[in-house]
């Protein structure tokens, strides 16, 4: 008889063994398919920002390789940077976490917000490890009232990773 629990319980842990390497220290994908996304949903104050920044630092070599490869989209260039889109009120939180918890210059970042964003060269954005921006800046894209706005989309960058903070 199929009960609700039969769909969720694993009778053994074979699924873990199939997805881990010989010594069990890393999960591997038996189908060799690239990961296309992740949701990190946790209670407030448990370190989602730090976890994300640690992941960015840990995968910096892969990000650099991605940035040096050809884009799959026409008229677009790749960047190894992670684009963090967050509410305006948390932009400084991301900056503070980088400055407080990481060795200076270990995570090069730029804030793409305010009037100063017009003066940030595209190459400088692409060479950063993290680009912080807000939903306000993303939201003005495609709006005819804001046709002269410098937005992330206008830069035609294929980002290595995009983080949507407080996306609920």
From TrEMBL:
Domain Helicase ATP-binding: 29-168
Keywords: ATP-binding, Hydrolase, Nucleotide-binding
GO terms, biological process: DNA repair
GO molecular function: ATP binding; ATP-dependent activity, acting on DNA; hydrolase activity
Pfam families: SNF2-rel_dom (PF00176)
Keyword set includes DNA damage: no
Name used for this protein in its record: Helicase ATP-binding domain-containing protein
Native species: Puccinia coronata f. sp. avenae
